[in-house]
């Protein structure tokens, strides 16, 4: 039995019942693919269900306020995906009358849609014979065929795409793409796959050569930057606080946060309290400063590790345009700030 036939047979017996697999409608397929970039299915599923309930059509998503979209996305991370999703929905609704581009080449022109996402939509919606190549596909093919190409190399994508295209049944590319991704997600997992029960254990080159844990080859680990955030959680005499919007490009763009004192290392109470009095809230009298978490919360992003402390600051009088506790919960926050607010 050929690789693709055996793979598809395994898929039909083992596939998960996922809502975006029960349709050829480009809108939910596109939503799911954007959400599942850098995100596990179990984590992404509640967000997919919330989005499709709140925004059942691309027009509903297009007509939403960006803050509503970011609030619903809160906790899913990589927030540029949400902003691109919203802008692309507006483009499709307003410029394309709600109709998604009908080919891989045209899908690539959409903001936030790369080769992988375009291939997924084109094959699942239009049955176009375009292979998807993601981490799962790299892993399955590199192990099965014992390919030592560094998947971080620029040439790797082209090599693996060509191989996947060769293996793909051209009359049913959608099921092949679903099958190989599902096989990588459920069976041929990154660490300690159970090769004893694998349908390919009689033909997998990596297994025969005892190289399963060596493949795929991937070099160049991302350099991680350490950053130190001190969030100043103000409270005036009537319980109101202050927020600011992150408008600069970079992490958490257009999300809200408390006033921020960023430092070059973790700082003690004396240092932070001096800066609060000298550089923040000068027009008010500070009547109390409290360190909420003496040990920093470490929040890990793909390329940055944030060491976060929250400081409660009591002010005399009332803040101009202050935000009350009820309104506070309606703003879109990075998940680490949302969690802090929820536990207070």
From TrEMBL:
Keywords in alphabetical order? 4Fe-4S, DNA damage, DNA repair, Glycosidase, Hydrolase, Iron, Iron-sulfur, Metal-binding
**For this protein, what does the record note about how its cofactor is bound?**
Binds 1 [4Fe-4S] cluster.
Q: Which InterPro entries did the record assign?
A: A/G_AdeGlyc_MutY, DNA_glycosylase, HhH-GPD_domain, HhH_base_excis_C, HhH_motif, MIG/MutY, MutY_C, NUDIX_hydrolase-like_dom_sf
Per the UniProt record, one Pfam family is NUDIX_4
Q: Which GO terms describe its molecular function?
A: 4 iron, 4 sulfur cluster binding; 8-oxo-7,8-dihydroguanine DNA N-glycosylase activity; adenine/guanine mispair binding; metal ion binding; oxidized purine DNA binding; purine-specific mismatch base pair DNA N-glycosylase activity
Q: Which reaction does it catalyse?
A: Hydrolyzes free adenine bases from 7,8-dihydro-8-oxoguanine:adenine mismatched double-stranded DNA, leaving an apurinic site
**Which cofactors, if any, are listed as required?**
[4Fe-4S] cluster
| Highest taxon in the source lineage | Bacteria
Please, one GO biological process term?
mismatch repair
**Domain HhH-GPD, which positions?**
35-186
Give its E.C. classification number. Answer: 3.2.2.31
Under NCBIfam families, the record lists: mutY
Purpose: Adenine glycosylase active on G-A mispairs. MutY also corrects error-prone DNA synthesis past GO lesions which are due to the oxidatively damaged form of guanine: 7,8-dihydro-8-oxoguanine (8-oxo-dGTP).
- Give the UniProt family note: Belongs to the Nth/MutY family.
Which protein, by its recorded name, is this? Adenine DNA glycosylase
**Per the UniProt entry, what species is this protein from, by scientific name?**
Flavobacterium frigoritolerans
Q: State which gene encodes it.
A: mutY
């Amino acid at each position: 039995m050929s690789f693709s036939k055996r793979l598809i047979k395994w898929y039909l017996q083992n596939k998960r019942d996922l809502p975006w697999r029960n349709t050829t409608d480009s809108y939910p397929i596109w939503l799911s693919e954007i959400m599942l970039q850098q995100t596990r299915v179990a984590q992404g599923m509640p967000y997919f269900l919330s989005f499709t309930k709140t925004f059942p059509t691309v027009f509903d998503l297009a007509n939403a306020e960006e803050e509503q979209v970011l609030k619903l996305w809160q906790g899913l991370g990589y927030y540029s995906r949400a902003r691109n999703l919203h802008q692309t929905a507006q483009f499709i609704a307003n410029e394309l009358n709600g109709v998604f581009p009908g080919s891989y080449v045209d899908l690539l022109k959409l903001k936030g849609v790369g080769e992988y996402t375009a291939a997924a939509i084109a094959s699942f919606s239009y049955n176009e014979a375009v292979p998807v190549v993601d981490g799962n596909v790299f892993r399955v093919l590199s192990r099965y065929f014992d390919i030592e190409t560094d998947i971080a190399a620029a040439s790797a994508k082209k090599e693996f795409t060509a191989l996947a295209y060769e293996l793909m049944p051209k009359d049913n590319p959608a099921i092949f793409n679903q099958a190989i991704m599902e096989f990588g997600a459920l069976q041929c997992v990154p660490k300690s796959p159970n090769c004893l029960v694998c349908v390919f254990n009689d033909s997998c080159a990596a297994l025969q050569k005892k190289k399963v844990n060596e493949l795929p080859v991937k070099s160049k680990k991302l350099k991680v930057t350490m950053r130190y955030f001190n969030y100043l959680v103000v409270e005036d005499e009537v319980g109101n606080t202050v927020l600011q919007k992150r408008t600069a490009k970079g992490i958490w763009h257009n999300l809200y946060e408390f006033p921020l004192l960023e430092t070059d290392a973790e700082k003690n109470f004396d240092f932070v309290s001096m800066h609060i009095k000298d550089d923040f809230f000068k027009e008010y009298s500070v009547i109390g400063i409290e360190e909420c978490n003496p040990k920093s919360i470490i929040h890990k992003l793909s390329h940055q590790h944030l060491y976060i402390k929250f400081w409660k600051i009591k002010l005399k009088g009332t803040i101009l345009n202050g935000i009350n506790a009820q309104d506070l919960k309606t703003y879109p926050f990075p998940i680490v700030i949302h969690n802090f607010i929820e536990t207070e």
